[in-house]
Amino acid sequence: MSSLTPDPCPLTPDSWQKVLRSADLKPGALAKVFVAGKPVLLARLEDGTVAAATAVCPHRGEDLSAGMLYMGAIDCPLHHYLYDLRTGANRYPRNVFPADLAVDVRPLPLFPVQEADGWILVGRMKDEG
Which residues does residue 69 pair with via DSSP β-bridges, in sequence order? Predict the structure, then answer.
């Protein structure tokens, strides 16, 4: 299995937390785990890589673990905002909004993620407990 550390990631992990056995996240699947008490969405993308992002939609706070994986992105179940799980960028509706509204569409925060020894590990940041 391959691993994916989202680029750009704003911080470098201070330590790694085991969150889920690799075998428990099948291709196209989502899982919600907790890192330092914060909900994290794991996704095994179509090409087998693992992505990690906040499980809370930056638009209206919906639980993204109830969404659907679609071409490397998470589709929010509330308003169908589509966030790229490799970059955090909003693919929709940002691309159809007028420019003055599009600047207010926030990206999805990502976490560093890796697979090692049969586990998925998520990076804990220095400011997290």
Answer: 74
User: pTM for this one?
Assistant: 0.84
Q: Which of 78, 79, 111, 85 minimizes the C-alpha distance to 28?
A: 85
Domain segments of the chain as ranges: 15-117
| CA–CA distance, 54 with 8 (Å, rounded to integer) | 15
How far, CA to CA in Å, does 50 sit from each of 35, 93, 110, 115? 16, 24, 12, 8
DSSP state of 56: B
Give, for 101, the enclosing helix (H) or strand (E).
helix 99-102
Residues 88, 91, 94, 99: is their CA dihedral positive or negative? positive
pLDDT digits (tens, 9 = 90+) for 38-65: 999 999 999 999 999 999 999 999 999 9
- Residue carrying the six token digits 């699947």: 29
Class of domain 15-117: mainly beta
* Residue 61 identity: G
